[in-house]
Write a structure and sequence with these properties.
Layout (H helix, E strand, L loop, with lengths): L2 H13 L5 H13 L3 H5 L6 E4 L2 E4 L6 E2 L2 H13 L26 H10 L4 H15 L2 H8 L3 H11 L3 H16 L9
Antiparallel strand pairs: 1-2, 2-3
Helix pairs in contact: 1-2, 2-4, 2-6, 6-8, 7-8
């Protein structure tokens, strides 16, 4: 998947209000965070946290801060989720409830919904992992995305990320933080 296709898909998911919010969110989790439908289907509302104006989602051991449009979708979905079953329609702990009360959407159903949006699952996930592996060391990739460290190392080697630049940026953030600067402000 090339950059143009990736960003066209992202824009479509972010701005097309005719799509179901849960499908838009699931597509964005695959597109930006390399989450398989099976992983997306197991996300509960407890995986979403909002503190100090930031919305984070726990996909692995370390929560990931969501950018504003994705955060809005996640909060909306957490607020309105309901099981799809006609009988026993109740609030569900699952971010994307399934057709049976108390159960999440199945991985197969989640994958089918994404395919109907024109998302090619393996291609999209590979693109996301490759992009993330160019930006993050394997250990960080594994901990934030919830993937095995050996898989993260393989993706890192494949992407040949510049870890010296990453380490320098983290070091500069720490120095700016100690000096009282806004570490997230563009330089």
């Amino acid at each position: 998947m090339d950059d143009e296709a990736l960003w066209n898909t992202a824009r479509h998911l972010l701005h097309d209000d005719t799509l179901k919010p849960e499908d838009r969110l699931a597509g964005l989790l695959l597109l930006f965070y390399a989450q398989w439908p099976a992983a997306i289907s197991r996300i509960t509302v407890d995986h979403i946290e909002e503190t100090d104006g930031a919305v984070r989602i726990r996909l692995g051991a370390v929560p990931v801060e969501l950018p504003a449009p994705v955060a809005e979708l996640a909060l909306h979905q957490a607020a309105v989720r309901r099981s799809h079953a006609v009988l026993g329609r109740t609030d569900s702990p699952w971010l994307i409830p399934g057709g049976r009360p108390g159960r999440p959407i199945s991985a197969w159903a989640m994958g089918e919904r994404l395919r109907k949006l024109g998302i090619r699952l393996a291609e999209t996930r590979s693109t996301a992992l490759f992009q993330l592996a160019t930006e993050l060391p394997a250990a960080v990739l594994a901990r934030t995305l919830g993937i095995d460290i050996t898989a993260a190392v393989k993706w890192q080697r494949s992407a040949a990320g510049d870890w010296a630049a990453y380490a320098a940026e983290i070091s500069q953030r720490a120095t700016r933080h100690l000096q009282g600067e806004d570490v997230h402000a563009p330089r």
